TrEMBL record:
One Pfam family here: DUF4442
Gene3D superfamilies membership: Hotdog Thioesterase
Protein name, per record: DUF4442 domain-containing protein
InterPro entries: DUF4442 (IPR027961), HotDog_dom_sf (IPR029069)
Amino acid sequence: MNAPTRRRAGLRLPAPVSKAASTVRHASSGAWSEVLGSPRTLKWGMNIWPPFLGAGVVVEHIDPEWRSVRVRLRRSPLNANYVGTQFGGSLFSMADPWFMLLVLRGLGPGYVVWDQAGEIEFVSPGRRAIHATFSVSQEQLEQLRAQAEGGEKVLRWFETELTAPDGTVVARYRKRIYVRRKRASQG
């Protein structure tokens, strides 16, 4: 079946999709299901995704059970700030998608999962490559399921540290994730 279209200046364009509708569908249909289908394909896709590629972000490992992700930010002149350290926007970028994706995949298709807020605290200058591991435990997923069981929204903070190769903490990153069970009308 053809997707709905609209006409504009003689061109047939796809009909606009609301952000809410695309969020509900993104993990279970279309191109996103191909990219999110396995940790291996997601790793490959994220490593060629222009925002990560341009910033020097490299996805090193995604756990086969979707419980953790290890990411590295290369140091280069393209992601250095005015004083020669890692650009803060690149540090935030390397951390941004992971907790949401791990929770989304960990909970499965019966839940709506959104990024709700993100914070970064810069602790020390990043003069070399930066590493970060993002983890969501089975226990955390079970707690989210229990809290969202009645259809209420659940807001949960997840945290990690971005470190230099010698273990020096460069930044602390926090992400608040919104979780709710899907309504029957959302499939």
